[in-house]
Every structure is written in structure tokens, then in C-alpha cells.
């Protein structure tokens, strides 16, 4: 079969990733975009780009009809779905085939079989694949689910029957927490997958999440390409992945590989797929689900095997046989991937939005950056908050880990809040360094939540020097015949500059005087010299530092220094206060859709009680009462789109 033009039915970094390989294979590429992504990097990389609708995914990236219309308009003969959106939608795969196009993915029947977690689990039991005890029944009444949970025994996991990515999933420790968990999981599942069916499984204490990459062709070959360890997760979504797993030896790898191949053969699989398992402390493993698509974390497998999984997908879709056998698969060294998210770990990993002021990806030996962003892009609340993947390879696991820390420090993304600092801390945590992280790693390492780090003196003084240099350049540009050495000149010595900077809810008053190539900056009782020695380098009191920065005269400074990512302001930024003010006003912690308002005017609420549910970036976030009190005002209604910091509900605290 000949393929000439591939349309990528996705956005962001995965669209860029697929475009890169497709073009290397001599294929013409077509991007699609919503109004929110007009001019995005993936649209500029492709040979052609087609608008498919407004920002909401349901009206653009999840509209099968619009995707297929775009493919026809652009003359595409194949569609690659990437991951997320329509990638595991069996109806879409069938519609693509019905339109006379090639779907670069598994058969629709396999997607449908594995997309239904309840049915998939029954199939796996028949195929002899180890499974966690649970309930996958058709009776979806609260009574049936409650009875099932009681039989299985707490703690249990409540999961959406259709879907993945941590959506529609809740850990329930005790019976009294089950009703709300069922309601929230069902609502999230209906929102994400248009399917509110649930399953219940026995929760395995502190397991590892280990998955097997498989590949199958239409000629009967089905191979295991080794495992990935994806145990570092928050809200059931992966954060750091690695290959191979530090908990898996050759014998266990072979056993898990056989089980994964059996799972794939049970549904006549074709193409790239991932069989996910929970691995307990005794080496027992249990089928979790099968992702019938390319995984976000596929680069770590590529780094240790030397294979291009997207190229293999395209070859299999063209009807070719896999160009390798199981004996050809070699695992070399170790690879790690960190997902760079637009989120605030100190605020409970809430998604963050805003313009990307600085984007400087790392480079170097053993470093790979998969991204789909550019400076000036607006990170919106419409899509998943992942912005880039930082991937490293090393001869040993520790070399890959240390390279990843360095690459994260060198990768500067400033604008929305990011998890850069948190990722570096996680990679340096003793449990992770020792290869002992389980799915409880984040919860156990940060039982409250990761604390925000206050800016240190080097950040303050460097930001001040950069701000003052921007002021000086602005003045010089308008100074006519006055030379740079005459700006600020006084007969009694250099003029002092006074400024107050604010960032991360803190403020500092600084005094600076010009010196050669920089400034002498006083912060409190300490004075440091800051020499701006070149593009992206400074000498702070004799110590050379690398940084990335962008400044506006009289305005803000965006700064990346080490692991810190800051935006400094001359005046207090508007709209930064969220949560409960002194008057009891509760504000939206991020932009989103209010899918539910539980608070009623005049009602008395307890601390921790759910007041509203905000839907943002494909997740549902509970807004709870911070204190016990009486609801004195409800300023919004269900179904309303709100901005970050928007007033929602007022509570009069009960003394």
C-alpha cells in the first residue's frame, strides 16, 4: 500500500513528533488546528494546515466529521491520531476506513475491545493474563457498585470503564467515602469519554506501574519491546517515566512480555500498543489496561532500543511486515522522561495558564526535547497542560537521572507556572535515586503538597539588574546624542536607582548603582555586584551564572535561573489572590467551566465540604469550604465559564 500524505489529528508536541518522522520518510504532512491554536508550532511544521473549528475540543479535535473533512480537503490518504482526543475512539477508526483513508493505528475492533475496561478485563482473564480482583458488571446502580466494593474489601479503586489518563479514577479508603467518589468519577467519565460506566478493583498497596510496549503487524508477528516504569504519578497521571524499570530483571521482563503479547493477540492487535500492569512488592503483576495507541512516554523506549516507533506505525499501516524479530530487540543503557506541565505543584498541581514569555530548550549529548510550544504562545485552559517532554539517555540509570536534572535546569520556560522545580526535587529524592519509587511516591514524599520555594537573593538582584538595564536601554534609545556612559551621571557620583520588585507573593526593596557592565545591588543588609557579561550569562559577586530572561522597560522581568522560573513585577500584579479573602470570598483557582454548584444560599457548610466543581484541562477540581460557615452569597451558576480569580461564593465563618 502506498501512502503519500498523512494528516495528524492532534496538536502540540505529539503532532510535531509525528510530523518530524513522517517528513523524514518522505511523506507530505497536514496539520489541523482550532482557533486557540492558530499559528501554533505544529501548524507551521506541516506542509499544510487546516482549521477544524473553535477552541473547545468537542467542536474541533474531537469532531471526527471535521477531521475527516479536513483530510479530504487536503488530499490526505492516511490519518495518524497521536494520543488523546480521538486516538482510542473505535467509531473514529471505522469512520476513517469508511472514508477510504488509512487509520495509522490498530483495528477498530481491538480499540473497542480494550477501550471497555470491564470487557477487556474479562477477555484478559480468558487469555490467562493475571488480573486484579474486581467488579466489571453491567449493573451500574449505586447499590450494585456499593455491594461489590464491600465484597472486594477496602481500599478500592473506582475507574471509568471507558478511557484512561487518570480521568474518572478515585481511590476510596473507606465505605463512607464511596458515594461521593462514585458521583465524581461518573461525572468526570461522562465529561471526558461520554460514558459514565464504572468498574471497581481491589487497590493494591504501594504498587509499581510497569508497562510493556508491544508492536504487531498484519502478518502474524507480535513483539514485546521491553518495559517502562511509570510509577511517579500525581492524580493518577504520569510525571516521570523510565526504561528499563529498576524493579524488573530478565526473567520477570520475559514473563511480563509474554503476558502482554497474549493480551494483544487476544484482540487481534496491529500496530503500537501498551499493556499496563501493576507490579507488587513480591514480583506479582496484574493487568491494568491496554492503551491502543502510541504512549506519551514512548521516547524512553526509543532511546534504549534505537527504534522509531512512529516510523514502525506508518510501515505497519502500509501493510509491511515488522523489520525485526524478538531476537533483534536490544536494550541499551537507560532513559528517563520528565513531563513539563503548566501547573502549580504548591497549589495542589492546579493547571496554570498564560503567555509563554521565554522558551529555551536544553540540548546536548543524550538529551531529547519533544515540544509543541514557542515563545509568545498562549497556554489556554482548553487542553491538557503538558507542554514538553524532557528525555535523556545514559549508560547507567544514574547517568540518565543526572542528565535529566541538568536538562531540566537548562530548559527555561517562563510564563505560566510550571513543575520544573518539583521535577528536579523528585529526581533527587532518596527513594527515586535508589530506584524504589512506587505509585505512592509523590504522596509519601510530599504528604501535604510540595512547598513553593521563596526567591533567593541571587534571583532578586539579578532581576533588578536586568530590569535596570532594560530601563537604561530604553532611555538611551530616546536620549539623542547622549552617550551610554553619561546616562545617570552626577557630579557627586553615580545616581542611585530605587525599585521594588514583587514575585510569588513576596516583595523586596532594592537600591542599585551602576558599575562597569552591570550594577551593584543592595538587598537588605547585603550588597552584591551583578555583571551582565554576555547573552544569558552574569557574574554575581564573582560567581558566573547562566540564565534566560526577558524584560520590559518599567515593567516585568521574566527570569529563569537554575531551577527557578519567576516573573518579577514593579507593581503588584492584578488578579493574583485566589482562595478565601478576609471577607470570606472564595475565588476560582484557575479558568474553567463550573460544572456543578453544590453550595446553597443560607446553607451551613463544614470545612472541607464541596461547594462547587470546576472543570479545567480535562479534569474536575473540587472547590471546598476552607472553614465552617454560612453561605451568604452565590455569585455564579452551573455551566458558567469563569476566569482565574473570579468571585464564586461567599462564606461567613462560624466562630
UniProtKB/TrEMBL annotation:
<keyword id="KW-0092">Biotin</keyword>
<feature type="domain" description="Lipoyl-binding">
    <location>
        <begin position="575"/>
        <end position="652"/>
    </location>
</feature>
<dbReference type="Pfam" id="PF00364">
    <property type="entry name" value="Biotin_lipoyl"/>
</dbReference>
<dbReference type="Pfam" id="PF02786">
    <property type="entry name" value="CPSase_L_D2"/>
</dbReference>
<dbReference type="InterPro" id="IPR050856">
    <property type="entry name" value="Biotin_carboxylase_complex"/>
</dbReference>
<dbReference type="InterPro" id="IPR000089">
    <property type="entry name" value="Biotin_lipoyl"/>
</dbReference>
<dbReference type="InterPro" id="IPR016185">
    <property type="entry name" value="PreATP-grasp_dom_sf"/>
</dbReference>
<keyword id="KW-0067">ATP-binding</keyword>
<dbReference type="InterPro" id="IPR011764">
    <property type="entry name" value="Biotin_carboxylation_dom"/>
</dbReference>
<dbReference type="InterPro" id="IPR011761">
    <property type="entry name" value="ATP-grasp"/>
</dbReference>
<protein>
    <submittedName>
        <fullName>Acetyl-CoA carboxylase biotin carboxylase subunit</fullName>
    </submittedName>
</protein>
<dbReference type="InterPro" id="IPR005482">
    <property type="entry name" value="Biotin_COase_C"/>
</dbReference>
<dbReference type="InterPro" id="IPR005479">
    <property type="entry name" value="CPAse_ATP-bd"/>
</dbReference>
<dbReference type="InterPro" id="IPR001882">
    <property type="entry name" value="Biotin_BS"/>
</dbReference>
<dbReference type="GO" id="GO:0005524">
    <property type="term" value="F:ATP binding"/>
</dbReference>
<dbReference type="InterPro" id="IPR011053">
    <property type="entry name" value="Single_hybrid_motif"/>
</dbReference>
<feature type="domain" description="ATP-grasp">
    <location>
        <begin position="121"/>
        <end position="318"/>
    </location>
</feature>
<dbReference type="InterPro" id="IPR011054">
    <property type="entry name" value="Rudment_hybrid_motif"/>
</dbReference>
<dbReference type="GO" id="GO:0046872">
    <property type="term" value="F:metal ion binding"/>
</dbReference>
<dbReference type="Pfam" id="PF02785">
    <property type="entry name" value="Biotin_carb_C"/>
</dbReference>
<dbReference type="InterPro" id="IPR005481">
    <property type="entry name" value="BC-like_N"/>
</dbReference>
<dbReference type="GO" id="GO:0016874">
    <property type="term" value="F:ligase activity"/>
</dbReference>
<keyword id="KW-0809">Transit peptide</keyword>
<keyword id="KW-0436">Ligase</keyword>
<keyword id="KW-0547">Nucleotide-binding</keyword>
<dbReference type="Pfam" id="PF00289">
    <property type="entry name" value="Biotin_carb_N"/>
</dbReference>
<feature type="domain" description="Biotin carboxylation">
    <location>
        <begin position="2"/>
        <end position="447"/>
    </location>
</feature>
